[in-house]
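Researcher: Next entry: Acetylornithine aminotransferase (Mycena chlorophos).
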Amino acid sequence: MFLSRSGRICSKRLMSSTTLRKNMSTATDTSSLLQYGANVTKGVARITPGIMTKGRGSYVEYDDGRTMLDFTCGIGVTNLGHCHPKVSKAAADQCMNIVHAQCSIAFHEPYLRLIEKLLPVMPDPSLDSFFFWNSGTEAIEASLRLARLVTGKQNIICMQGGYHGRTFGSMAVTRSKTIYSLGVAPLMPGVFTTPFPFWHQMGLPVSTPEDELVKQCLYQLDLVLSQQTAPSDTAAILIEPVIGEGGYVPAPPAFLRGLREVCDKHNMLLIIDEVQSGFGRTGRFFAIEESGVRPDVLVIAKGLANGFPLSGVISRRELTDKLPPGSFGGTYAGNAVACAAANAVVDAMHDEHVIENVNARSAELFSSLNALKSAHPDHVVDVRGRGLMVAVEFAGGESLASRVAKKCIEKGMIILTTSVFDVVRFIPPLNISEEDLKKGAEIFKQAVEEVVREG
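Model: Predicted structure:
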């Protein structure tokens, strides 16, 4: 409560002069930093201006006073919202014990505790060997190394439209956009590409039945193995169960089962990349669970530690026992603070019934987006995804997706496009409230309607 200039009592709380001066000073200091934006490498792109200063739950704040609803989660990282109190506290507490306990020198408790918590949620009980690293791209690199070492074979088959990272090994198996490897060839050799069962990749209409897509893609895989890389030379097949940068396309369970059969037949490993789709994003702990398929290697990152850099490569001890000691490692691999945060993430997923919330909010989001598609059939050609990993594809050739995303930002919601197609993707927090989900869906609807009217 405070008194206005007229003497009336007002409901807002009066900030102390000290707090006011501190906030003004912070804003001034932050704004002055913008001049150094010119010194940031041009290769880093950005979709919003200004400096992000604070995040709480489903919202972020900027230095100029804007508060934005965040439907990006840092590209699928802050799955429990920004600064989840249990996660942040776990990390802060760990900072006062030990920050860096290098993995080649000794175990630390959060690392082993995280294995204890993850074992029960693995998509298959055979996955019992863990290596924690820093980022998704590093974990992909490690999975490729693992496949080559334990099979004694070199070649890797990846998916058209797949994205796995921007370091040299992961970049070689990324097939979503040429920008990620433009001008830096030669890339890692021994990589072969096969079609993913997505109507775009096959040059077929959106109405093509799923079983036909699966049939065609498994046939093409057989051709790859008979024409390009012999099974005796092929170490692994790498796939995202829901393709991310390629357009948010779920892999049909029948296709994943077909890949499992091929790998079993030819002594190849099936590497499942759940960097973005894992940890509840699709309405299950892991997207691969929908198919019942057993991964030989599971790659995780992003939502694992809710913003702290941590990734993991999980396989079977019968495979990883073949690795020479010292062949895996890294200075910051499995950092103690990041592992402590990840332990809190797993606890929160259970304690706060996050998966149940994902499925409830997913039904609401799909209902809203499908209604929008029905209202604008000439502009919205597809609504797809799983859980809260959802995409809307617009009619190509008009750049509607980027225009809609820009309008959403103008209306107070951050949202992203993806792929070489005209696609907007939804990656809201997994614990988002019904109210905030509805607010975001309404902003998106208004943005689409305005873009359509503008032509």
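Model: Note for the record: The chain has 14 helices and 19 strands.
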